[in-house]
């Protein structure tokens, strides 16, 4: 099944850096689908992790009753906000101590665990504020690419390079440093996420072919190829989960 969680909008002062915060109570095996983001998360098993950018869906299992909380950084933001070696963290889960040091790891684990469930996100938001206070400004190229692809996943790499005032090779290098992979991969991931959002809308009754077109795919087979390549299952199976 897809991992269930309760999302929450970030505080206004963090909205430029975080997509959302979330809490969850888990138990069993779950599948996560790439979304272009990097999460920092705590679990009641006594661990805290940075989930690097994913290029394909991955599964994990947790004991029944495991509690978790996390904050989700906007695409391209983790490199500067956390000092993360984003391509080195691609398709990996990295302990916070390997990114921000053992002191931060200990404080996150201890302070979030000690907080009441309704306060856990506040604690994580406070940690995020401290990281961001000393972080360099975000790379404007990453912001430009993420903004364009969030609204138009059909934008060509050439058009993205032109908007960023870079050559396609320079754009690929900058995007890899920021997102963990090139702009074409980010476009595929965000397009699949758009398809999933459209399918989840209340009252959505369109067929898969219509949803594929609305999400920016050329046709249903295009969606099917991308969906299987990223998630390992068909679009119908993905929505069924």
UniProtKB/TrEMBL annotation:
Gene Ontology molecular function, alphabetical: DNA-binding transcription factor activity; sequence-specific DNA binding
Organism: Actinorugispora endophytica
Keyword Transcription: yes
Keyword list, A-Z: DNA-binding, Transcription, Transcription regulation
Entry superkingdom: Bacteria
Pfam family of the protein (one): HTH_18
Name by which UniProt lists this protein: AraC family transcriptional regulator
All residue ranges annotated as the HTH araC/xylS-type domain in the record: 139-241
Gene3D superfamilies: Homeodomain-like
InterPro entries in UniProt: AraC_XylS_family_regulators (IPR050204), DUF6597 (IPR046532), HTH_AraC (IPR018060)
């Amino acid at each position: 099944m897809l991992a269930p969680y309760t999302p929450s909008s970030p505080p206004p002062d963090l909205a430029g850096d975080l997509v959302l915060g979330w809490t969850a109570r888990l138990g069993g095996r779950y599948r996560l689908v790439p979304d272009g983001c990097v999460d920092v998360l705590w679990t009641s098993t006594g661990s805290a992790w940075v989930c690097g950018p994913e290029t394909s869906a991955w599964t994990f299992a947790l004991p029944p009753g495991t509690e978790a909380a996390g904050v989700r950084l906007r695409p391209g933001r983790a490199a500067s906000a956390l000092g993360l070696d984003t391509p080195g963290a691609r398709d990996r889960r990295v302990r916070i101590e390997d990114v921000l040091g053992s002191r931060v790891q200990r404080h996150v684990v201890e302070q979030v665990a000690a907080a009441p469930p309704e306060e856990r996100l506040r604690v994580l938001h406070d940690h995020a504020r401290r990281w961001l206070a000393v972080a360099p400004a975000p790379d404007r190229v990453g912001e430009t690419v993420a903004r364009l692809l969030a609204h138009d996943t059909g934008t060509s790499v050439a058009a993205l390079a032109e908007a960023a005032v870079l050559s396609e090779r320079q754009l690929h290098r900058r995007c890899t440093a920021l997102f963990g992979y090139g702009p074409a991969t980010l476009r595929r991931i965000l397009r699949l996420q758009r398809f999933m959002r459209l399918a989840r809308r209340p009252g959505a009754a369109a067929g898969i072919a219509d949803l594929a077109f609305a999400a920016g795919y050329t046709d249903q087979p295009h969606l099917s190829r991308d969906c299987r390549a990223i998630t390992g299952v068909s679009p119908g199976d993905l929505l069924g989960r």
